[in-house]
Amino acid sequence: MESKVREGVSLIDFKRVYRVFSGPPYNEKYTDEELQEIYDEYKEKGYIYGVYAGEVCAGIIALERGSKKDQPVSFQDDETMYLADIAVLNRYRKTGLGTQLMLFGVMQTKALGYKRIYMRTLENGSMSYGIARKIGFVPIEGVSQAVERERTDGGVSSVNNIFLELDLDRLDRNAIRRGIQEVSMEREKKYLGEEL
Length: 196
Prior knowledge:
Layout: E1 3-7, H1 11-18, H2 32-45, E2 46-53, E3 56-65, E4 80-88, H3 97-111, E5 116-121, H4 127-134, E6 138-150, E7 156-167, H5 173-192
Parallel strand pairs: 4-5
Antiparallel strand pairs: 1-2, 2-3, 3-4, 5-7, 6-7
Helix pairs in contact: 1-2, 3-5
């Protein structure tokens, strides 16, 4: 499958991909207005990139400049990028697109002159956690945050998120190389119809 990452994701594509968070393990409920607000915030404070399989936006990554004020972490903002969200449509999972997006986000952050990238995620059940760990992100010890959201079943519940960081001055080229090889292997296996 030929894919390409590019900037300039439309609101329609963003909403379609972002709704993956309405499925397991997140089961978060979002209105169109909330999705518009999230999209606008990402465009104002950073960057939104999409990975396209042909003309279909199969995934997104959102990067915000600086650290978020409502999170229990503290970094020098002019040196830090926040990996705000990464999502891949279900039918494109296990094809390497999530890894491709994560690698792109890391390399783009470094190219823009930032020294650190960090993210908030679930430790269990999250696509992004495993990918981030494989390419060198490490947990920020002792830092977590309970996030309360309305769920698709109408209830409200809280999930505990952890924080991961990657020091871009100490970027492990071997971890990046392994990530790139993994993308190639995942695509090859998917193409051949094998399970990962």
